């Protein structure tokens, strides 16, 4: 009996899929090489954008066709909008909410495995032998008006600090080299349980100490902070520990204060830039990425101009640029009109991509001639070369072989374009 999982969307969904995999294995399923070999297929849904929802419908439609010829169980888990849940109940055999993941054995009744008490107790079946995803919280209380997360994942709940530190110690002792701490708004970690758990800076400090003292070299990344809540303390901790990677994803979303207000982001562009400048002054080698939404309800050409200006000012290495798509149930969908046409959203997306292409190239060119460590990830099917990532998560291509996967290699950077560095092994 085999299972296949499709995690869509962000790293949090990938981490959730690793726990779902464990539950399927406790009831006797093993991982299938491909979807067509599986007897049970699960999709870990993303509801952030309409395009992600459309993919879910496309996939389940194909699976349901397969059911005419064979026995196949399908389920959906992850980020599910209340508006979609009823429809999914008709299309899938099971809808497994995240807090029901420990009950997968009961849901697949024919097996009598013992279920863990809660989601965090499940030991994930990791997809990598050197990169570990570690969730530190679930849900979000920020209610940005465009966003589905507070409705799909619910209100913010922090995982216990002791639990997180135990998982960090476990992966370090297993030799993992990259840890990514995940949360929708990591800066508010612990604030839902005052006096009970550490705060984010304290948690990061404790994790940095563990990772600095591991026998192997380690990089710890975290995602994502909220510009309103980001503190000097967090950045000081990040600067203090060599294992805490010099990488920051600081989501801007828009460069116009009126748009930010309508998004309920609760910061101004000026405040955002102060935080960004502080991050760069404390950690000059920081690689910085951002998230931007183009074409949010009522965004005028003049307001969009401000986002172009902010993108230039931010000198980003990377940006996740999304075209606004209304999420059923989210405040913006109920209260504002989706005024910007699809064509205009595409145009704004392309305009920002051009700015990014320039700033990323300028930043990358500064690395040419430098020697930097790279964690080797995989072989490129296209070029036959090996691919790795820098501490700032920049993709680095070089000549080598697959035996290097999972290792840190010092690399001399010889060439750069906007989206990739090219290097030679430096011995
Ligand atoms: N439309 C477009 N992009 C969105 N994001 C979140 N909700 C929406 C939406 N309704 C983007 C934001 C967020 C990233 C994870 O996805 O930029 O930071
Ligand atoms: Fe969504 Fe805003 Fe929470 Fe991020 S901070 S998950 S964008 S509501």
Any chance you could write out the topology, listing elements then pairs?
Blueprint: E1 2-7, H1 11-26, E2 30-31, E3 40-45, H2 50-66, E4 73-78, H3 82-91, E5 94-95, H4 104-107, E6 131-135, E7 137-138, H5 149-152, E8 157-158, H6 161-173, E9 178-182, H7 200-212, E10 219-223, H8 232-240, E11 247-249, H9 257-262, H10 269-282, E12 287-294, H11 301-314, E13 318-323, H12 331-335, H13 342-365, E14 371-379, E15 386-389, E16 395-398, E17 408-416, E18 421-425
Parallel strand pairs: 1-2, 1-3, 3-4, 4-5, 6-9, 9-10, 11-12, 12-13, 16-18
Antiparallel strand pairs: 7-8, 14-15, 14-17, 15-16, 17-18
Helix pairs in contact: 6-7, 7-8, 8-10, 11-13
Bound molecules: 5'-deoxyadenosine and iron/sulfur cluster (SF4).
Feature tags:
5-stranded mixed barrel; Transcription Regulator spoIIAA; 427 residues; 5-stranded parallel β-sheet; Rossmann fold; 13 helices; binds iron/sulfur cluster; binds 5'-deoxyadenosine
Walk me through what this model shows.
With 427 residues, this protein is an alpha/beta fold. The chain contains 13 helices and 18 strands. The strands form five sheets. Strands 2-1-3-4-5 form a five-stranded parallel β-sheet, sandwiched between helices. It has a five-stranded mixed barrel with strand order 14-15-16-18-17. The relative contact order is 0.08. 5'-deoxyadenosine (5AD) binds at residues 48-49, 146-147, 251, 253, 291, 293, 322, 324-325, 327.
């Amino acid at each position: 009996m085999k299972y296949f999982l499709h995690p869509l969307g962000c790293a949090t969904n990938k981490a959730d899929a690793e726990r779902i995999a464990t539950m399927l294995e406790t009831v006797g399923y093993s991982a299938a090489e491909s979807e067509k070999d599986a007897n049970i297929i699960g999709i870990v849904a993303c509801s952030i954008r309409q395009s992600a929802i459309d993919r879910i419908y496309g996939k389940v439609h194909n699976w349901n066709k397969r059911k005419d010829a064979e026995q196949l169980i399908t389920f959906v888990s992850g980020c599910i909008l209340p508006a979609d849940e009823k429809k999914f109940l008709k299309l899938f055999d099971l809808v497994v909410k995240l807090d029901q993941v420990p009950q997968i054995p009961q849901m697949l009744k024919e097996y009598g495995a013992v279920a863990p008490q809660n989601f965090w107790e499940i030991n994930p079946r990791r997809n990598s032998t050197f990169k570990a995803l570690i969730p530190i919280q679930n849900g979000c209380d920020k209610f940005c008006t465009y966003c589905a997360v507070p409705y799909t994942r619910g209100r913010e709940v922090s995982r216990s600090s002791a639990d997180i530190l135990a998982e960090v110690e476990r992966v370090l002792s297993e030799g993992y080299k990259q840890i990514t701490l995940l949360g929708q708004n990591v800066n508010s970690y612990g604030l839902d349980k005052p006096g009970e758990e550490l705060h984010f800076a304290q948690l990061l400090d404790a994790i940095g100490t563990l990772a600095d003292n591991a026998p192997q070299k380690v990089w710890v990344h975290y995602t994502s902070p909220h510009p309103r809540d980001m503190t000097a303390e967090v950045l000081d901790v990040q600067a203090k520990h060599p294992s805490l990677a010099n990488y920051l994803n600081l989501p801007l979303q828009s460069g116009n204060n009126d748009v930010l207000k309508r998004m309920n982001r609760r910061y101004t562009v000026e405040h955002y830039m102060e935080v960004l400048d502080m991050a760069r002054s404390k950690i000059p080698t920081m690689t910085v990425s951002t998230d931007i939404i183009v074409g949010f309800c009522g965004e005028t050409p003049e307001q969009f101009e401000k986002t172009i200006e902010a993108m230039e000012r931010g000198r980003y290495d990377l940006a996740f640029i999304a075209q606004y798509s209304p999420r059923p149930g989210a405040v913006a969908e109920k209260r504002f009109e989706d005024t910007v046409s699809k064509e205009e959203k595409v145009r704004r997306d392309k305009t920002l991509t051009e700015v990014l292409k320039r700033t990323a190239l300028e930043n990358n060119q500064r690395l040419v001639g430098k020697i930097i460590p790279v964690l080797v990830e995989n072989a490129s099917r296209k070029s036959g070369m090996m691919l790795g990532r820098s501490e700032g998560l920049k993709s680095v291509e070089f000549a080598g072989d697959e035996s290097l996967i999972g290792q840190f290699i010092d690399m001399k950077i010889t060439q750069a374009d906007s989206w990739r560095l090219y290097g030679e092994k430096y011995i």
